[in-house]
Specification:
Radius of gyration: 24 Å
Number of strands: 4
Low-confidence stretches: none
Distance between the termini: 16 Å
Strand content: under 5%
Largest sheet: 2 strands, antiparallel
Structural class: mainly alpha
Strand order of the largest sheet: 1-2
Order of helices and strands: HHHHHHHHHHHHEEEEHHHHHHHHHHHH
Length: 455
């Protein structure tokens, strides 16, 4: 079992984007269980204010281009004081994937993410209901073309297959009946929607009762005059739904692979799902407080996504605490690594785990992280260097220095990796004017390791 500081570092890496030494100091004083409750119940969360961002990035209002809106979310990711709020939005963005190529409306895509942010830790029924009304999703999966006299099965199928239950837990007839229930769930807009100066006018949900199938439907063994609301009521009470959601949450917040102990943790998460009345917050509480999550089996067991790698690194370097055009470089960096905000490759989302890594993306990941963490001009790196120097005795070995640096950024280096790095470190450290450079070099080396790619 990990000690308190390492355990909280582990929690913040999985539930957020890591934690600086100063943040860890505060968390340790609260204790693990209290930190879990704090992150699960964010109150008055703050980030770089959007009105300030708009003064520097007026193009964020342009709804026909994806990069400005992605930059807006990137600011929030790197400056938020409620990282789980953003992490859960990223989770749903990958699971309930909508992309710019199909929607062509950035305002609606950002509002969708904001909905994930607000409802993502709450009741799964409420989340699915809002997703069913979401205009970006209606465009993405063609529910705007789902009519009483000509059903379109795309939304009904993906709702069951990719969003709630998984293949093998429903029939083709269930898909058709679900699709019938969502006829007439469409969108509305102003008749005239000028593009300039602010881009497309936002859509809003509309129920068209003249285009809805009010006839009796049979879905998952139940019969009635079901609307979409009742379809969701039936879905969320299925065991298959509890297993599907608990498994996906486990893989996102704990480990890419599921062993027997992991399956037991998932079973406990499923129980929490039903006991709480389908509350995602309770499912995650079950995971975060489990002995399995706190064990070595769940540490460094997940490959960081490009967003997790980029955001976690710059939250350490603290290089983006105020508006700067360079924020778009972060969006590009994640893209070079294989993940672009608001542009998942398909409705299936991104393929995660080891599939994040190939020869091309690995070079991008290593170069970015190493460059960022070794840059002594970055305010967060300066703080790291000062703290490392302050906590070390006057005479130390290279190995002691390496251990302290890796401890500070929460990177658990293997003995093999340590040996390789020790062969590359400059002469034995001493606290003269070159000592800062040496610490920066070591931080850069650590950020280039395979261990840095894991949480």
């Amino acid at each position: 079992m990990l000690n308190d500081r390492k355990l909280i570092m582990h929690l913040m890496g999985k539930s957020g984007f890591g934690a600086t030494p100063e943040e860890l100091d505060k968390y340790v004083l609260k204790g693990y269980d209290n930190v879990v409750e704090d992150i699960l119940n964010p109150v008055h969360s703050s980030s770089l204010p959007e009105d300030i961002i708009y003064r520097y990035h007026v193009d964020i209002a342009e709804s026909r281009l994806p990069t400005p809106t992605a930059a807006k979310w990137m600011y929030r990711l790197v400056t938020t004081d409620s990282p789980l709020e953003e992490k859960i939005a990223l989770f749903w963005h990958g699971l309930f994937a909508s992309n710019f190529a199909d929607v062509q409306q950035m305002t609606m895509l950002y509002e969708q993410v904001d909905m994930f942010r607000k409802l993502g830790l709450g009741n799964f029924r409420d989340l699915l209901l809002e997703l069913s009304k979401d205009t970006a999703m209606g465009q993405m999966l063609d529910n705007i073309d789902n009519h009483a006299d000509a059903i379109n099965e795309n939304w009904g199928r993906e709702l069951l297959e990719l969003f709630s239950m998984g293949i093998g837990n429903y029939t083709e007839d269930d898909v058709k009946e679900a699709s019938r229930a969502f006829t007439g769930w469409t969108r509305d807009n102003l008749e005239y929607t000028p593009f300039w100066p602010y881009g497309r006018v936002a859509w809003h949900h509309k129920f068209d009762d003249n285009d809805h199938d009010f006839n009796t439907k049979t879905f998952l063994g139940e019969t009635g005059n079901f609307d979409g609301d009742q379809i969701i009521d039936i879905i969320v009470k299925q065991k298959a739904t509890a297993e599907f959601i608990s498994t996906r949450l486990y893989q996102y917040f704990c480990s890419d692979q599921i062993d027997s102990d992991g399956q037991l943790a998932i079973n406990e998460m499923m129980e929490a799902y039903f006991t709480s009345g389908y509350e995602i917050r309770s499912v995650l509480r079950s995971l975060f407080k489990s002995d399995h999550f706190k064990s070595d089996k769940c540490t460094y067991s997940k490959v960081k996504s490009p967003i997790e790698l980029v955001v976690g690194t710059v939250r350490f370097s603290e290089a983006y605490s105020k508006p700067t055009l360079a924020i778009k470089d972060l969006v590009d960096q994640a893209t070079f690594m294989g993940q672009t905000l608001f542009q998942p490759p398909s409705v299936e989302g991104w393929h995660e785990g080891v599939e994040w890594i190939d020869s091309g993306t690995l070079i991008e990941r290593v170069n970015f992280a190493s460059s960022e963490m070794s840059d002594l001009n970055k305010p967060g790196v300066k703080k790291l260097v000062a703290r490392i120097k302050n906590e070390l005795p006057n005479s130390i070995s290279n190995e002691d220095l390496l251990n302290k640096c890796s401890e500070m950024i929460g990177c658990n280096l293997s003995n093999t990796t340590k040996e390789l790095l020790l062969d590359s470190i400059d002469n034995s450290p001493n606290k003269n004017h070159k000592f800062d450079d040496q610490i920066g070099q070591i931080l850069g080396f650590i950020a280039a390791t395979k261990e840095y790619q894991l949480i």
